[in-house]
Amino acid sequence: MFDSWETMQSLAVLVPALPLLGAVLTAILGPRILKSRAHWPVVLGLTGSAVAALCLLIGVNRQAAQGAFADDPASSRLTLWEWASVDPAMPAPAALRQASGTMAEAAAQVPFHIDITLRIDPLTALMLAMVTLVSTLVAIYSIGYMHGERGYWRYFSYVGLFVFSMTMLVSVSNFLLLYVFWYQKPAAAAAGKKAFLVNRVGDFGFALGVFLIWTTYGTLNFHDTKLPDGQAIPGVLGQTRLASLAASGADQEHDPDHSAPHDAAHAPARKPPAESLYVGGGWFGIGTAICLLLLVGACGKSAQFPLHVWLPDAMEGPTPVSALIHAATMVTAGIYLVVRCTPLFFASPEAQLVVSVIGGVTALMAAIIAVTQTDLKRVLAYSTVSQLGYMFLGLGTCTLIGATSGIFHLMTHAFFKALLFLGAGSVMHSLGGVIDMRRFSGLRHKMPVTCWTFLIGCLALAGVLPFAGFWSKDMILAAVHERAHEGGSFTLAGQSIFHWLYWIGTGTALLTAFYTFRAFFLAFFGPERFPGELDHPPHESPPNMTLPLAILAAFAAGLGVVCEWTGWFDKLLLKTPSLAFAAFHETAEVGFHPHIAAISTVTVLIGIGLAAFFYLGERTQIDRIAAWVRPLYRASYGKLWFDEIYDALIVKPLWILARLAYVVDRYLIDGIVNTIGRLPVWTGALLRPFQNGQIQSYALAMILGALILLGTLALRP
Amino acid sequence: MNEVALLRSLLAIGAILFATGVIGLLTRRNLIVMFLSAELSLQGIAVSLVAWSRYHNNFGGQMLVIFIIAVAACEAAIALALFVKLFHDRGTLDVVAWQTLREENLPPHIDIEVPEPEAREEKWPELTPAGREPAPNLQQQRHRARV
Predict the structure, then answer these.
(1) Which of A262, A646, A665, A708 has its CA 20 to 30 A from that of A421?
(2) Please, what is the average pLDDT of chain A?
(3) Is A247's pLDDT higher than 70?
């Protein structure tokens, strides 16, 4: 029904357009006319957008089933208008000439064309559906949460804009436009100076990566571009390059020398072969540099070590905004970028290793910090950082299952993290803004709906068997395990690293279960205690807040099972052109791993058991344990002193540099400028005595001047 | 007397006139005398112009002298008008009275103290009234009242 290309193209336009329209309407009409009804345009726009995205997903699913995406058809893209055009812009780089093969020497100039092109493929459709669905629920929830706040219309207007840029980010088919929407989002998102600065670091890396892509590949488009003169420029993720990668991968699979994958010590390292049109090349190659620069951008946006410090601090705004930032919009951009650029990363095994290591380190570190935080929202924020680390861990394996599991975890995480944040917001709402878990407990009787939906979110986050988080987390661990035990593209060193990463992942699962249920038990169990300044006992939130909670809880509970059993998700995602190349196939058939699932289930149950043992009933043991491991406790409570380390390593030296610059500017530069300014004054002071008011002296000076003139004339040879 | 000798004597006269004028300009303090000295040096130039004009048998120089005389006349008119105004303001023609136009923070230049004019009672000639007081001319008075 929705599978004709025309319908899908108009749907792809509607998805970003409706939130934008809603935001603009709210911004224009909100302050004067709509006032307390200011949410209507945005909520309706988002709902329409979500419906359009779901229809698009259905259509894409049908097309994918028919294999329509196999050769990246031109009709899966919609060019709206041309944004920038410089013709010709640059001599064609070597990688481009190699790719197009027949490109004549005379035409060896590449044009710089940036078209506003939306693409329709499974990855985009899935991201669109997730983003709009979660955003719609958050917006509906906000109607209750933000009721009566100042700047009500402004809030909804911003939500609409957020969703617009996020949907555009996942839809565009060009690195430059990706950067544009990448850059736009955080400006209003997290007003904190820290968030702004840290994100600039990431954006800077991303920008450099985009420049490097342009000079290396001679185009910024994902897709192959046909110029008006019939010449074709192969896109960075276009069919020409992908086909070359697939062909070279297939060659290698049939390579008779290729040993069994388990015999990794003797297997030749699976390097990207020379005839692939992607630039790779060792630790110091261009391909690695591109990937690492893009990774810096992804780390900044997705709050990965060492740029993770902004995310937990970006929670001063309203809780639904946190839910939106943490779950649906901002942080997922980094994951999306890495998945989209999988072929680039495939060409550089070194960069893959870096992605995985960063992901593993972040996952473990954030989980350790989350164990001791007392602020409910802060626990959730660090768990977001940790889960994003998980996703990077999966993506870094750069196998089929790795990429799938990253996106799968992204989806499930979006739902259960939005659920948890909105639950925390519901608690805050009823407790008058108190979120410190030391000040309240035993809320389960007062707020039953919040409590039980929150429990579902916790189960999903911890990864208990039937809930969504279990399946996606298991898939990531399976991918890492696979990578550790199969040859992969790395030699033995890389493999041992992946062994370690697997155990880090499992340990993180234990910690995740522990801190999640610690927060749950602290907030909802124990004696009923409420903050003193509350003038009425806490009550359950209104239905327009609990309804989104219930819907999200349903997704958090069921999404994993549905996707895993039907296998629909993997099959659809792998039809994405940039993920569908044949080099992946050697690890394609990875099913459910009973032993990995068993190990992770046991660790999760241990974690939950520990949390229950320490935090249910009398909470005396935990203080004793905390006293035993005092340094560890303090390290975790102090967030591993990242802020202090940054302060000492970056802020202080910069401060000293700024002081130095101030002194130099104040005394040296200003001194020079002022000296120049005083020169005329000094000259004037020298000449002033001649103006003594005596006409005779003026006359004398005049006559002497005339004599000097005459004298020089007379003495001139 | 040949032409060269005539030229020499004329140039000598011009030079003497010019030098006298310059010396007068530099040494005298009375505005009118200074002006006269400046005119004197101008005429010295005029004499040498005429001399050269005659020597070269070219009337351009003499034409120029006529212009100079015309310009000097205008100059004199303007200068005298200025002097009247200056005298009106300060009550003296000494240029030193105008050295207050110097730069602000310079000391005044005093070479020779100008002696204070001694306070002298102004005496106007008086005529002894004699004869009969003329009768008032009514017509004349009315006329004055109208004017």
Answers:
(1) A646
(2) 78
(3) no
The mean per-residue pLDDT over the stretch B1-21 comes to 92
Q: What angle do CA A295, A569, A380 make, to 5 degrees?
A: 55
Kindly determine whether residue B25 and residue A691, on different chains, have CB atoms separated by under 8 Å: no
Q: What is the pLDDT of residue A589?
A: 52
pTM above 0.90, yes or no: no
pLDDT of residue A566: 76
Q: Locate the domains of chain B by residue range.
A: 3-98
Half-sphere exposure of A79 (CA within 13 A, CB side): 15
- Could you give phi then psi for residue A275, rounded to 5 degrees? -80, -5
The answer, for B110 touching chain A at a CB cutoff of 8 Å, is: no
Q: Which amino acid is at A575?
A: K
Longest dimension (CA), chain B: 78
User: Selecting from 3.40.50.920, 1.10.3290.10, 1.10.287.3510, 3.30.450.20, what CATH number does the domain B3-98 have?
Assistant: 1.10.287.3510
Backbone angles phi, psi at A491, to 5 degrees: -85, -170
B22 with A703: Cβ contact below 8 A: yes
Chain B residues touching residue A693 (CB < 8 angstroms): 98-103, 106, 109
Q: Distance (Å, rounded) from C-alpha A597 to C-alpha A390?
A: 16
For residue A209, what are its two tokens? 């990566």
Q: What is the pLDDT of residue A64?
A: 80
Q: Which long-range contacts (CB under 8 A, 24 or more apart) does A47-51 make?
A: A47/A136, A48/A14, A48/A18, A49/A14, A49/A15, A49/A16, A49/A18, A49/A19, A49/A132, A49/A136, A49/A163, A49/A167, A50/A129, A50/A132, A50/A133, A50/A135, A50/A136
For residues A430 and A604, the answer to whether their CB atoms sit within 8 Å is: no
Query: What's the confidence (pLDDT) of residue A372?
Result: 82
- Could you tell me which of A573, A376, A325, A363 has the C-alpha nearest to residue A463? A363
* Residue located via tokens 């008032």: B136
Q: Which residue among B26, B27, B100 sits closest to A693, beta carbon to beta carbon?
A: B100
ipTM, 2 dp: 0.73
